[in-house]
Amino acid sequence: MKLSRRSVLKAGVSAGCVAGGTVGGFRTANAGMFLPFTFPRNVHVQFGSYVNWSQEINIPLIKEFKPTSVDQLVSVINWAAKNGYRVRPRGSRHNWSPINVNPNDSVTGNVLVADMTALTAFSVNTSGATASITAQPGIMMDDFLTKAEQYGLGLVHCPAPGDLSLGGALAINGHGTAIPAKGERLPAGGTYGSLSNLILALKAIVWDDSSQAYVVKTFTRDQPEIAPFLTHIGRAFIVEVTLQMTQNFRMRCQSLVNVSADELFAAPGSSGRTIAALLDQCGRVETIQFPFTSNPWLKIWTVAPTKPPTSRQVTGPFNYPFSDLLPLNLTNIIGAVDRGSYALTPLLGATAYGVVTAGLALTNSADIWVKRAGWFCTTGHKELHPKSASQRPFRGR
User: Which residues form the FAD-binding PCMH-type domain (predicted)?
Assistant: First the structure.
């Protein structure tokens, strides 16, 4: 049966007939895709692929929109609630788990992905006893920490990647636990524990019974209702957060590749350079264990107001280029393992360990002295999306 244009309009839907056209209040990139005409007219939906940073999740086609205001986002969420759709937030897709978006959420399904990266408002309040920053979730951690540093503010610990969104970091209670070393005293405004400990208040989109609609509601730290939003793993829409901040301070990072895993991970009370002993010493430890190797890449961070004599002062973030842009011989092995040559895994681990050992020496990065705020001192490098065979990030990160 051939339908006239009038009958299609009466049915309340519009089929995208021309690739790249604007139909029914949304922009379509593929023929045959459609949304009801009731979809908010000021919001453009694009059809594209969803690929996470390390490429384990690859959805060829998915419906996505990019709200430029909170009001736009609320309007889409309310439309979705009335029309049998689900809306999921995304930042820079720096995730491994398909919790908020999964391969079944194809373009033919009823999932809309909200690209939150246009919501980047940022403001600083230094008038109170504790300084705070209020920001929207789409701002990248690189930008957030760089702006904070301009006000002399920082965090006790923070995620390593600069291209991770603030919303993404908050969704997973972004990483590091920042426990104190023995005798260490917190700077004003600082807090130990994970990133959620810094949240003073947030705004979230929630259901309102009185209006029978989704609305923006503010939650403060002293309200029990805030708890589910502190680590929501991508299943809530946080549109603004206020974090308490501390004054910037300097730290020393030492990298060691000569401590065996047996010594490092020995039971508390054992002799030697154990995790327990190092945490007592500095409170901040990171290890990267390469498969089938004996010695991890160990980084220890200590508060250092003045430059240690043996340290090299660095003037910016991401001081381990050898772990960001890997040599071709290593990426070739990674690719082969990905394609099923699992017997090469011991060679992969040994090669990666060799790249780190040589890289620390060649870049003089085994002992560096850094400014704290925007320089990603928890793990210290920026992870990049692959651009070529010789520019793959190390997926074991």
Answer: 57-248
